[in-house]
Design goal:
This protein is α+β, with helices and mostly antiparallel strands and about 100 residues long. It has three helices and six strands; from the N terminus they run E-H-E-E-H-H-E-E-E. The model has no long low-confidence stretch (mean pLDDT about 95).
Length: about 100
């Protein structure tokens, strides 16, 4: 399995539209991508302009190829491109335990 934790800073005044566009990507990932195990969107409790994405895929290829070429992702990237306040910070993770899958070797 392959996972990402992404921190996104949003330019002030664009939070609502950013969240709306991001929900389209998250729902599309969770429902239309067989290689996507989960795609969660979370807000920072202390900074309304910071959003976190937690994404888990069957493998790196499911993220690099299937996800990044999916219509919901390309639409999201085009829509939100001007609303980033700096580059998103991405941490790649190796899952050890995921509720739906148990311990991962």
């Amino acid at each position: 399995m392959f996972a990402l934790f992404v921190t996104v800073k949003i330019k002030p005044g664009h939070r609502a539209e950013f969240i709306e566009a991001t929900m389209g990507d998250a729902v599309g990932s969770n429902t239309a991508e067989p290689g996507c195990v989960r795609f969660d969107v979370m807000a920072d409790a202390n900074d309304e302009n910071t959003v976190y994405l937690y994404e888990v895929y069957n493998d790196r290829d499911s993220w690099e190829t299937a996800h990044r070429s999916a219509p919901h992702y390309t639409k999201w990237r085009e829509t939100v491109a001007d609303w980033f306040d700096g580059d998103p910070q991405r941490v790649e993770l190796s899952p050890i335990y995921i509720k739906e899958h148990g311990t991962i070797s």
